[in-house]
Amino acid sequence: MIKFPSTKQMNFNYLLIKKQLRHNFKLIDNIKTIFAIICLMLSVWIYWYFVNTSSTKWYFIRNEKNKLSDIKFKNEIIKIDVRKLEWSINDTLAYNSSNILTWKVITLNSNTELTMR
User: Fold this and answer.
1) pLDDT tens for residues 67-77?
2) Are 67 and 75 in contact (CB under 8 A)?
């Protein structure tokens, strides 16, 4: 004997399948939303860590390099002043010790080192 399903049974099964699909679609929508939020948070973190931090770090490094170059420049000026004072002291010592003016020859080599004869 062949039994045909009743309309009531078919309606119940259809509604059950529809309810399961609706539940699955809500689950998929929730997963998509969570994935989008995670991607947004990850992109914000990547920007903050790599772009913002590195640009801020290089800003401070650039400032410190400028300060260092200013200090080196001032140091070179002081070195020049010290050498001038040394030369003037040597000239006065040479002039006072022998009462004769002595000439010193300064030559520049190809590698630009100062040598005195």
Assistant:
1) 999 999 999 99
2) no
Confidence category of residue 111, pLDDT binned at 50, 70, 90? low
38 and 44 Cβ atoms separated by less than 8 Å = no
- Within 8 A by CB and 6+ apart from 95, the residues are 101, 102
Q: Which amino acid, residue 5?
A: P
Where do the structural domains in the chain lie, given as residue ranges? Answer: 7-116
What is the per-residue DSSP string for the chain?
Answer: ---PPPHHHHHHHHHHHHHHHHHHHHHHHHHHHHHHHHHHHHHHHHIIIIIIHHHHHHHHHHHHHHHHHHHHHHHHHHHHHHHHHHHHHHHHHHHHHHSS-----EEE-TT--EEE-
Give the span between the Cα atoms of 82 and 57, in whole angstroms: 37
Q: What is the pLDDT of residues 39-56, one digit of tens each?
A: 999 999 988 888 877 778
